[in-house]
Design a protein that fits this description.
By secondary structure, the protein is an alpha/beta fold. The chain folds into 2 domains: 129 residues, Rossmann fold; 98 residues, Arc Repressor Mutant, subunit A, CATH 1.10.10. It contains 8 helices and 13 strands. The chain has a 5-stranded parallel β-sheet with strand order 2-1-3-6-7, with helices on both faces. A 4-stranded antiparallel β-sheet has the order 8-9-10-11. Strand 10 and strand 11 form a beta hairpin. Helix 2 runs parallel beside helix 3.
Length: 237
């Protein structure tokens, strides 16, 4: 959703209602696009999905219910029916087809504005929660250490630790499997993608550099521990 100017598409074939509503909504800071036919509405939706769709049901070349169904195939952004069809069965059908709210003509303009604001704010809160959930699922946080899986960087107290790509892959593997001991051979074959043979110095050197960069010796929150004769593990203290 556009942060400063939400985009509203109003589908209405009565020109006077369309012009009045557009003028009032634009005065309140909304970016309003219009369509007077179903064909125009489909074109607008395909070209640029609005943050809010306001729909009349009876149109010269189609039905607002069909437009709502098409819109729902693309997005869960809110739909407000604004129509002269006031029968309960019409309202039920509009909501069943994916509408979020149903206002009948004639309507109170203050209520109209309040519904628009409510629907847009609800959508904004929902999108924020989804974004936060996605971001949290793309991070591993252990005390003051944070691994951002989306950009491949590790941060200590919000400062980039400067890990190489290999060091980050090594840390991620260990951090995602806390308290599990990995042999040097397992680490090499998983992170480097090739057989380690008998050479363990590469892994040992990377573990040393990794511990230094993430401040393992200076914190009581976590550590990468060398288990004699077995390998390495990531542990939270």
């Amino acid at each position: 959703m556009t942060e400063n100017k939400p985009h509203i598409l109003m589908v209405e074939d009565e020109e006077q209602i369309l012009n009045t509503n557009c003028r009032m909504l634009r005065r309140r800071g909304y970016d309003v696009r219009t369509a007077q036919t179903a064909a125009e509405a489909y074109h607008q939706i395909d070209e640029n999905l609005p943050d809010l769709l306001i729909l009349d049901i009876m149109l010269p070349d189609g039905n607002g219910l069909d437009i709502c169904r098409r819109f729902r195939e693309k997005t869960m952004r809110p739909v407000l029916f604004l129509t002269g069809k006031g029968d309960v069965r019409d309202k039920v059908e509009g909501l069943q087809q994916g509408g979020d709210y149903y206002l009948t003509k004639p309507y109170n303009f203050d209520e109209f504005l309040a519904v628009i604001q409510m629907l847009l704010e609800r959508q904004k809160r929902m999108e924020k929660k989804i974004k936060e959930k996605f971001q949290s699922s793309r991070q591993i946080t252990i005390g003051s250490l944070r691994l951002d899986l989306s950009d491949g960087h590790a941060y200590l107290n919000n400062a980039d630790t400067g890990l190489t790509r290999t060091e980050f892959s090594l840390l991620r593997l260990l951090a995602e499997n806390q308290e599990k001991i990995f042999s040097a051979k397992e680490l090499y074959e998983t992170v480097w993608g090739s057989c380690a043979g008998t050479d363990t110095s590469t892994v040992r050197r990377h573990i040393f550099n990794l511990r230094t960069k993430i401040g393992a010796e200076d914190t009581d929150e976590y550590d990468i521990v060398s288990v004699y004769g077995k390998g390495y593990l990531f542990t939270c203290r």
